[in-house]
Automatic annotation (TrEMBL):
GO terms for molecular function: hydrolase activity, acting on acid anhydrides, in phosphorus-containing anhydrides; metal ion binding. Belongs to the Nudix hydrolase family. Its cofactor is Mg(2+). This is NUDIX hydrolase. Residues 9-135 form the Nudix hydrolase domain. It comes from the Bacteria. It comes from Crinalium epipsammum PCC 9333. PROSITE patterns: NUDIX. InterPro entries: Nudix_hydrolase, NUDIX_hydrolase-like_dom_sf, NUDIX_hydrolase_dom. Keywords: Hydrolase, Magnesium, Metal-binding. It holds the Pfam family NUDIX. The lineage of its organism: Bacteria, Bacillati, Cyanobacteriota, Cyanophyceae, Gomontiellales. GO terms for cellular component: cytoplasm.
Length: 147
């Protein structure tokens, strides 16, 4: 087995969602727990693709588990790969008010503006301060906004 094959086997596959409404983007403030990816950072809702599950199925499952939301449509935006993970990125409209969502995972959630995204941080009521965006999440959003 060559190095690329070994590397592909150890990469985790995750599905993440860009949820958008009126020029704003719903993001999760990740728990501030050491050992998790991007603790205390704003990021997308989503998670690991389970064995036997397609990335799209994982996305739908994760959205329901994390915020009790089932989007009317979900569309593939692209894939972002680094040395540790393959991110399957989807986008979907957010057609409910924030108050109708039930945050099951994470510290906070909020609708980030284009200004927040470009600045790379957003204020969290629950944290009581500005919290940074995860670097890959910010780049994915900037790419999405360009298109």
């Amino acid at each position: 087995m060559n190095n690329q094959a070994v590397e592909a086997e150890i990469k985790r596959a995750v599905s993440i969602a860009i949820l958008h409404s009126d020029g704003k983007f719903l993001m999760q403030l990740r728990d501030d727990i050491p050992g998790i990816a991007y603790p205390g950072h704003w990021g997308f809702f989503g998670g690991h693709v389970e064995p036997g599950e397609s990335p799209e199925e994982a996305m739908e499952r994760e959205l329901f588990e994390e915020i009790s939301y089932i989007p009317p449509t979900i569309t593939k935006f692209g894939e972002y790969e680094d040395s540790q993970v393959i991110r399957h990125v989807y986008h979907a409209p957010l057609i409910v008010d924030l108050q109708e969502l039930v945050l099951q995972e994470g510290w906070d959630m909020g609708l980030l503006t284009l200004e927040d995204i470009r600045r790379g941080s957003c204020f969290s009521q629950k944290a009581g301060k500005e919290q940074p965006l995860g670097r890959p999440h910010q780049q994915i959003l900037l790419d999405f906004i360009k298109k």
